[in-house]
Model the fold of this input.
Amino acid sequence: MTADNLGPEPAMVLVRPQMGENIGAAARAMLNFGMTRMRIVAPRDGWPNPAAVAMASGAGRVLDAAQVHDDLAGAVGDCDFVFATTARSRDLTKPVYSPERAMEMAAAMRAQGRKVAVLFGPERTGLENDEVAKANAIISVPVNPEFASLNLAQCVLLTSYEWRRQATDVTHADDGMAGADWASAIEVEKLADHYEARLDEAGFFYPPEKAPGMKVTMRNMWPRFSMTRQDVQILHGVLRQLLRGKP
Done:
């Protein structure tokens, strides 16, 4: 299935949010990771909220497109699968997933054209049990059990980040050396010869009985540096400059 035929990204549903600033911060977190579908249920201070707009700082389009609902049932009525985020243990029998696993599932459901929502509770109390009961599964963030409280925007950001990892190709490592002009084995060998000869002349390999082992250790060191040709040239030049004018 091509990207154009995929179902929509998960809807991020803020249930009874208390502060406009947190709604705006959540919008910024969403847009950071390419998410735009926000739904707001019964915001305490009404809607629209100037504080949310000010805090969104460039992510106003997420707020402009946000759906506002009076109740949770209306917010998720068109969804096929609902996750509820909570840090508290519940007495409800539901599967519990990490944000990573939950968004893996969301991506798989998206590929099937199914609609997914993620619920986030109000800042002070989180979701109530009757709200969690409306979800198919729980997302639990592995936080410090002695300080498990997450800011609303932080929780939205964590989930949005995990969605981004599933929805796009992520570069997990880049050493910045793509296209580098790497030194050949013979160039590294000649550099090792140069340093060994000069250090031998300077009496570095002492006492004599330890010299062979010291030389092997140094020979083993050079290939580990993964040098470019420029690196090799510089190191030759450093040694020549240090010895310039010396007998």
User: Anything to note?
Assistant: The radius of gyration is 29 Å. The first strand starts at residue 11 and ends at 15. The longest helix spans residues 185-201. The chain has two domains: 3-167, 185-243.
